[in-house]
Amino acid sequence: MSTQRKPKPSAVIFAKDITALAHFYAEVVGMKEAHRDKDHIVLDTDVFQLVIHGIPKKVAAQVQITVPPQVRENTPIKVCLPVDSIEQARLRAAALGGQVGAKGKEWEARGFRACDGFDPEGNVFQVREGVA
């Protein structure tokens, strides 16, 4: 039997500006920075890590980020992140160049309320809050 601790589950989001995107997720979702080096920043909770990883330079030149960002809805994966309040996440996201959908776009399932949004680089994500 191994005594090694299992690593936390994590997801990776590739970004042109890792500092700005890490700040966005730290503020919107309430995560803390656990590690930083020149090509990635790790955000952490008790049970999960979100890694903001730089897009390789030879590819980054081909990636254009518009303002507002072009939402990349046709990707095969979406990160779903817990928050204390969807409304607070909505306000923080808007202030930081992203968006969480309007209240009318929220839906409920399996003990949570959810709403999709996008970050300043157009990556789609979802926030979830618990419901009684």
CATH architecture: Roll
Low-confidence stretches: none
Structurally, the number of domains stands at 1
- The radius of gyration computed from the alpha-carbon positions, rounded to a whole number of angstroms, is 15 Å
How would you describe this structure to a colleague?
With 132 residues, the protein is an alpha+beta fold. The protein has one domain (10-57, 70-130): 2,3-Dihydroxybiphenyl 1,2-Dioxygenase, domain 1, CATH 3.10.180.10. 20% of the residues lie in helices and 35% in strands. It contains three helices and nine strands; from the N terminus they run E-H-E-E-E-H-E-H-E-E-E-E. It has helices at residues 18-29, 57-60, 86-95; strands at residues 10-15, 32-37, 40-44, 49-54, 79-82, 99-100, 107-109, 112-118, 124-130. Strands 5, 6, 7, 8 and 9 form a five-stranded mixed sheet that branches. Strands 1-4-3-2 form a four-stranded mixed sheet, with helices on one face. Helix 1 (18-29) packs antiparallel against helix 3. The model has no long low-confidence stretch (mean pLDDT 93).
Give a quick rundown of the structure.
The chain is built from three helices and nine strands. It has 132 residues and is α+β, with helices and mostly antiparallel strands.
Question: What attributes characterize this protein structure?
Answer:
132 residues, alpha+beta, 2,3-Dihydroxybiphenyl 1,2-Dioxygenase, domain 1, five-stranded mixed β-sheet, four-stranded mixed β-sheet, 3 helices, globular
